[in-house]
Every structure is written in C-alpha cells, then in structure tokens.
Design a protein that fits this description.
Elements lengths: L8 E4 L3 H12 L4 E4 L3 H9 L5 E3 L4 H4 L4 E4 L3 H11 L8 E4 L5 H10 L5 E2 L1 E5 L19 E5 L6 H13 L4 E4 L2 H24 L12 H6 L7 H10 L1 H23 L3 H26 L1
Parallel strand pairs: 1-2, 1-4, 2-3, 4-5, 5-6, 8-9
Antiparallel strand pairs: 7-8
Helix pairs in contact: 4-5, 7-10
C-alpha cells in the first residue's frame, strides 16, 4: 500500500498526540476519522476541524472503512483494543502507533494480529507538558524526529508508508531502528531524563524557591510536570533497559559526588570538558537544521 490522499485514516485515541496527528493529516488533505472514549472529545475535534468525522463507540461498520489505523493510546489499551476489536478492521489495512516503548508491545500485537493486517511501529519524538485534544498542535512535529521500528514481519511497502506518514506531517528526520535499539535509545534519551527531572523535583521541598530560581533549574525540570499514569506504565514496560541506564547515570553521578567530596578538581574538570564536547553535537545539529 502506498500513502495517497484516497487512503482514509482512522486515529484511535484522540488525546494530545492523536489529536496532533489528526490535525496534521487533515491539513495535508487526508480524510481523517477518529475513535475516542468520550463524545465530548469527538465534538471538540469536529468543531475545530481536526477530524472529518468520528465516534465514541466501537462501530464495526465505521471502523471497517479505513485503510490506515493509527493508535494513540496507552500501551495496555492498545493491546486490549486489538484483542477485542481487530475483527472490525478492513482487510489489507496497515496499523501503526505512537507508543513510546516497542519490544513489549510490537511482538505481542504482531503475534495476535490477523494475517491480512500489518502492524508497523512508529514513535514521534515530540510532545508537550500537557494532555488532551484541546492541547493538540500539529506544529509540535516541525523539527522533531520520527522513528520507525520494523521487524522481520514487516513488508517494505508498509515500512515506506509509515515513513511517508512522518514526512507528510513535517518531521525533521525519519529514522529506522529495531525495537530493541529503539527501547535502549529511548531509555536513555527520554525515560532516564524524565526520571532525573522527577527525582530533582521531589528531593527537596522547593515551592518557596520559585522566587529565586534561574534558567538552569527551570530547563532541567521542564519535563518534571508529567503524566504519571502514562509515564509510570512506560517506565515499567521498559524496566530492564531503564534500570541499566539509571545505573549508568548513578555511576557517573557518584564519580562527580566523590570528586567534589575529595577535592579532586582535575576529575571534575575532565568530566566537564567531556560534557561540553558532547553537548556540542546537539548544538551543531540544531544549527544545521536552522540553516
């Protein structure tokens, strides 16, 4: 299947990410429908022109008209939906998702999926510190990264279709990783960062410090305002990898702590020089993107 404007796209789960997908794909000229738990969500999306139509009930006839189905649900809800409702999806349809962990989801769903359906995993590396369709913005994809996570069960056509979805929505870079490499990468770049931010916020009662803080604390803790239901599920689904990344961080943090305690200025400076050098990679990448 090739991505074309005659393909009808269903967004299953219309929160921040599902709503942003719907808005971006609608703006690109696709016919986009949605399934959501609450009718108020559908009504808002219709009023804002985010979707063309939608439903808050599992309607087999409605679900069966779509060529592409993108799941923007919590991982457990995604699995349960496939278990209970995959029989309603159109034969030959391609399924994708926005799930932030892959190994614990992809293999489970591919094992239970009908043979006339294909599921290709994807992860948009974008978001906001808020939730709900009312906060959906297709602009969050501009300059962001998009990761496709194929397995040996995926066809080249489905992989390319998934990448095309990322391209039409305006992502900066389309990458391809195995589910295992994805979970290792996301465990370090995203989940560990959130663990650090949360730990920093809870280690000290800081409500009275807001009048004195500078940009460094605000920048470090921006992601500490967190959806505890979603992120706790993601952490536990990727627990082995995440614990490895946390141990790696703990080792270096302990080295910094001991160097300070022992007055070892040279080790402190070595760590700072290496940190500065590695951070430049990100600055150069951003400058290249902006030029």
């Amino acid at each position: 299947m090739k991505l074309s404007k005659d393909k009808k796209i269903l967004i299953a789960g219309l929160g921040l990410m599902g709503g942003s997908y719907a808005e971006a794909l609608t703006a690109c000229g696709f016919e986009v429908g949605a399934v959501a738990r609450r009718q108020e969500t559908i009504d808002y999306a219709l009023k804002q022109g985010i979707i063309k139509h939608g439903t808050s009930v599992i309607d087999p006839e409605y679900i069966g008209q779509f060529d592409i189905v993108i799941f923007a649900m919590y991982p457990h809800a995604f699995v349960e939906w496939i278990e209970n409702n995959q029989q309603y999806i159109k034969s030959g349809a391609v399924i994708s998702d926005v799930t932030g962990v892959k190994c614990s989801i992809i293999y489970k769903i591919q094992a239970m999926l009908r043979p006339d359906l294909e599921y290709i995993g994807a992860h948009p590396m974008a978001g906001r510190e808020c939730s709900g369709v009312e906060n959906a913005r297709m602009e969050i994809f501009k300059g962001a990264n998009y990761i496709v996570t194929p397995t040996d069960r995926n066809t080249p056509e489905a992989i390319e279709l998934c990448k095309d979805l990322g391209r039409v929505m305006g992502f900066r870079m389309i990458a391809e990783l195995t589910p295992e490499k994805h979970d290792e990468m996301i465990g370090f770049l995203s989940q560990l960062a959130h663990c650090i931010a949360v730990s920093l916020m809870v280690c000290k009662d800081s409500h009275h410090l807001v009048d004195y803080t500078g940009d460094s604390f605000r920048d470090l803790t921006r992601i500490a305002k967190i959806n505890d239901e979603m992120w706790s599920e993601l952490f536990l689904l990727n627990r082995d990898v995440l614990v490895e990344q946390m141990d790696l961080f703990s080792e270096k943090f302990a080295l910094m702590r001991d160097s300070i305690a022992n007055g070892d200025r040279e080790t402190i400076r070595q760590m700072m020089r290496l940190s500065t050098e590695r951070r430049k990679y990100f600055d150069v990448k951003q400058e290249d993107d902006e030029s």
